[in-house]
Amino acid sequence: MDDVHQPTAICVVGFSGPFFDWGVGVLGLLLADAGHALEQVSELTDDHPAVQMLVGIDAARNHPDLPLIAFVDAPDAALQSMLAYNGDLAAHARAMTAVVAGLIGMANRVPLLLVRPDIVGNISKIAGVMAQFLGVRPTDIPLAPHATVKLDSISTQLADRLLAPMVQNLVSGQREIFEVPISCFYADNHQPGVPMLDLVGPARLLYWGPYFGFPPGRWRIELDLLFSADIGDTHFAAEFYCEAILARVKMRPSGGGLFRASFDVQMNQHGALAELRIWLERGAIQGAMALKRTVFAPI
Amino acid sequence: MNAPFSWGGKPRGFPDPVPGNFGQDLSDRAIVVQDLVKEYPTESGKRRVLDGINFRCGPGERIAFLGGNGAGKSTLIKLMAGLVLPTSGLIHRGLYMSWPLALGGGFEGQMTGYDNMRFMSRIYNTPFEKMLDFVSDFSELGAYIYEPVRVYSDGMRARLALGISLSVDFECMLIDEVLAVGDQRFQEKCRVEVFEKRAHCAMIMAIHNVHVVKAYCNRALVLKGGRGRVFDDVNLACDIYATL
Q: Domain residue spans in chain A?
């Protein structure tokens, strides 16, 4: 193997968990077989004795000239392993969407290797691909971990409706419709088990979040909003914010019932955390409402 | 002069509310408003200004009406006073209630302030000397007391009306932005007379000044779109009002 192409530093990105750990382990094995060490660093230094490895989407973004390997596990499996470590679903969702959205924004980066669990069943093939990427000879590598996935309903919604379409977007290059589960949003004075927000009170923020990374491109955001029959003359507004207010729409329901509001957003920020805000624009003395569904559709 | 309403609550010439229609105990010592509706005819059809208002004001309680311009605060005050009649609903006047303070529309313009006072003192069974002393001191009209009311400015008329209304021992005072009368010194005088010397009186007031509401009221009715909601939390009511 021609060691001229062997990198001295690489970026590695993925969802924290067994699959990522396996991937980094394989990198270490392949490099060790070629007589090189692999060492994770926080900053690059010259004349480092080992191949330096920067981990994380931010590092990948800050070093666009380095080879990038992404170990992207199945979203439900990755979410399950992350939840086993720490039950903060929102934090994991933020991290995972930031990774995927960031990778989508780097789709044209060279060189980039995307390692997915659906191809690692063929171990010899993946060993060959990774070795070629590193500029070393292939060697025997262990099987990738596999776990039976069992998630609760909210986590399943997150994995199926949001993360899986985003990962598919990353893999295929085709933008997919994805939905943000309502449970991912923060709500004003939310009472567990109470399906609607009581609007009585001054003008204020009703819903905000989810602070996820969203893929770049032009998107149509659809909001399904349920209003009580006594909504009266109540004024609402929805905003989409990512480093600036990217879109704003005013809403004034004509009565009770389920309504849909939609507006278009141009996302240029790769993986930056974004926020949807729903405002009560004027004080209310009656009425209730609920955010029922939030969908992002590619335009 | 036509008194704005008759003592005991029932407008003259109108029948008693039918017992059982609203379940209201007519001996209830309180001002009670039930399902009050007021509509006005307009070029484009009937406009419902008040749509099912409900509240209660007992002895010594103070309730403020809060709402944007055109929300119906003054209309509600006029309904309470009997100056206009409701389209439907009940107003039970179980407390001795004033007319809207500073309302000068009931004076006979050809009569002097003095003579109007004599007339009012007889109607409201208040000793005339007591009324004269108080009004002379409070209204600061000086010699104008002995001039016909038709020559008074709007401010003078309001000060006379306010003085007369404060000289009668009402149990419940109706207030429609009365503190806007006169200069700053007079307004402070009004505040002391109304809110401090008559702290025992029930009050129903339509007012924009949230500082007064927070300082002196224990409940607030916020009006929006013809509907109303009573809040025991006056601070919350003021916050809602601030963003209507």
A: 3-134, 177-298
Task: Decide: A12 and A26 in contact? Cβ < 8 Å.
Answer: no
The amino acid that residue A121 corresponds to is G
Give per-residue pLDDT as tens, A62-100.
999 999 999 999 999 999 999 998 888 888 999 999 999
Look up the ipTM and state it. Answer: 0.79
Chain B hits for A233, CB-CB cut-off 8 Å, are: 224-225
Contact A285 B229 (CB under 8 A): yes
Separation of alpha carbons B50 and B53, rounded Å: 7
Segment 201-240 of chain B within 8 Å of chain A by CB: 222-225, 227-229, 236, 239-240
The single-letter code of the amino acid at A250 is K
**Kind of pairing between the strands at A288-298 and B88-93:** unpaired
User: Is A252 near chain B, with CB under 8 Å?
Assistant: no
Spatial CA neighbour of B149 closest among B128, B178, B119, B127: B119
Phi and psi for A213 in degrees, rounded to 5?
-80, 130
pTM exceeds 0.90: no
Domain extents in chain B = 106-169
User: Is the Cβ–Cβ distance between B230 and A289 less than 8 Å?
Assistant: no
Please give the class, per CATH, of domain A177-298: mainly beta
Query: Is 3.10.450.50 the CATH number for A3-134?
Result: no
